[in-house]
Amino acid sequence: xxxxxxxxxxxxxxxxxxxxxxxxxxxxxxxxxxxxxxxxxxxxxxxxxxxxxxxxxxxxxxxxxxxxxxxxxxxxxxxxxxxxxxxxxxxxxxxxxxxxxxxxxxxxxxxxxxxxxxxxxxxxxxxxxxxxxxxxxxxxxxxxxxxxxxxxxxxxxxxxxxxxxxxxxxxxxxxxxxxxxxxxxxxxxxxxxxxxxxxxxxxxxxxxxxxxxxxxxxxxxxxxxxxxxxxxxxxxxxxxxxxxxxxxxxxxxxxxxxxxxxxxxxxxxxxxxxxxxxxxxxxxxxxxxxxxxxxxxxxxxxxxx
Length: 305
What we know:
Blueprint: H1 10-14, E1 39-52, E2 61-81, E3 84-103, E4 106-115, E5 118-127, H2 134-137, E6 144-154, E7 173-184, E8 187-198, E9 210-212, E10 215-227, E11 230-241, E12 244-246, E13 249-250, E14 255-269, E15 272-284, E16 289-302
Antiparallel strand pairs: 1-2, 1-16, 2-3, 3-4, 3-5, 5-6, 6-7, 7-8, 8-10, 9-12, 10-11, 11-14, 12-13, 14-15, 15-16
């Protein structure tokens, strides 16, 4: 049911393609849970982001009150990786962005629709989560799981170098991550930490080259398993770093944010589940804050279902 959780944080990631901190807003409960091998997942999801959204400090935008409608289509498959459980995700987002901001002291508006940057992710659980068939999985009890992942964000999103705000980022990003998951009865505690590394954008607005130092991220979750396939999570996400260097000039601002939120997942059929989620800023060094909420439908199929 919904306990076979392949992907979620794509919603947080791609709703914010306009941000210098776009991919740091990961909120991804159950990312390192064990699932039976040979299963396939399709996810269709919608979320909305609203608020005073920060853009790169090298561009002259202030007081950006933006709204983003985001639709995501994703596919995931669980794998047997030399006896370890794992999975691979492919994520295609679309977005509609609208709102106003001050550009060099003058009010401006923006309304764009199109594709945001796509993503591929590879997970492997290195301890505590062996690769199991659906039949073998019925006797599995989680204790401690240690896993790792690598995410690749591809520059497939809509991008115009003559505009300050875009859906795509015109660069690649890579995120290695290490995750821990520990179960105690009906509760599961999770912690994951990683960093985003960026290639250069060689077509920035009003410049020749835009570089960005890594953004370091940490997320934690406390999950309560209410019933089979039904769970509720309290989510937290912290990220810091991401100073930009435009044409050799280092920005003076460092991104630092703390977000809190929640996730509720429940089955509606043997192969279908619904996920509701939301989060909000509780601290931002740059005084930017935004709210995010959405819904996802998951369909699964494969061996043993």
